[in-house]
Amino acid sequence: MCAPSVINAVRHSLSRRHFLTAVGGSVGATMVAPISGLAQTKPVRLAKGFRDVYDLTHTFSPKLPVFPAFKPMQIRQRFTIARDGFFANEVTFDEHTGTHLDAPVHFIANGGTADRIAVDRLIAPLAVVSIEARAAKDVDTMVTVDDLLAWEKRYGRLPAGAFVAMHSAWEARISNADRFLNRDAKGTMHAPGFSEAAARFLAQERDIVGAGVDTLSLDAAAAQKFVAHLALLGAGKYGVELLANLARVPSSGATIIVGGPKHEGASGGPVRVFAVA
Question: From CA 125, how far away is CA 116, in angstroms rounded?
Fold first, then answer.
C-alpha cells in the first residue's frame, strides 16, 4: 500500500515547480513507445518522495483500437513552419478514445461530468490486480470478488481512496486492432473486464475513487449489459480504460496520477496517466 508520506508528498507538499523539477532531475521512468511496440527509457533520478515513475498511457494515435461505436482519432496538419511560421495539428476524436476516462455521466443520467471530478480523487493509491494467467487461456475471464480478496490477503485491505486496475496483459494485442477487438463469427467481441459482483463489491464495500482496465471496457467485452460500468459509475466512481504498462507497476504501493479531461460537460476524454512508487 502507498505510504501516507508518499501520498501527502504528491498531493500537498510538491508544488508544480518542485514536481516538474523532480521529474526532470535524474529513478526509473517507464515510457510508452509508439503503437508498434512498448519500450522503456533509461532510468532517471527523481529528487525525493518516490523512486520510480511509470507512464500508463498509450500514445494517442489513429492506429489505436477503438470501441466500434466510435471512429479512430484523426490528426491533420494545419500549419507548417515553412508556410506559416509555426507548426500545429488539428486533432479530432470521440471522447472515449485512447487511454481515457469515463465520468459517471457517461452512463448515469445527471451523473457527474469529468470536468467536475475533484482533483484529489485523481491522485490515489494504486492496486493492480492481475488476471494475466487466466486471460491467456480464457479471453472472457473477469476480475472476481475472490481476486480482490486474494489481493487483500497478500497486501492488506484496499486503502481508502484507492484506484483498482485490472491487468490482463491485453495490451500485447494493441498493434493489431482485429486481435484487440477479438470478434467472433457473430461479431461479438471478447476481452476481459470486471464482473458485476466485483464492481459492486468495490463500489459498495470498499472506499475507492475508481477502477481501470487495460482493455477497451470496464465490462467484459462479451457482456450483454454494461453492468460493471453501471455499478461503478452509478456509485460516483470514475473509470479509466486502455491503460498501458500495468505489468511494470508494483501490485501494491504505487500512487496513480490521472491527468483528467476538463472540457465543459465532459462524459470523459483522453487522459495522461502516471504511476509513482
Answer: 21
Q: Classify residue 184 by burial, with Cβ atoms within 10 Å: 0-12, 13-18, 19+.
A: exposed
Which residues have CB under 8 Å from 249's CB, separation 6+?
54, 56, 126, 128, 275, 277
> How far apart (Å, rounded) are the C-alpha atoms in residues 127 and 201?
15
∠ CA 260-127-239, rounded to 5°:
35
Distances (CA, A) of 161 to 103, 122, 238, 246, 260: 16, 10, 12, 19, 17
Angle at 203 between CA 135 and CA 164, to 5 degrees: 45
Distance CA 199, CA 231 (A): 6
Sign of torsion over alpha carbons 19, 25, 28, 29: positive
Each residue of 62-114: pLDDT tens digit?
A: 999 999 999 999 999 999 999 999 999 999 999 999 999 999 999 999 999 99
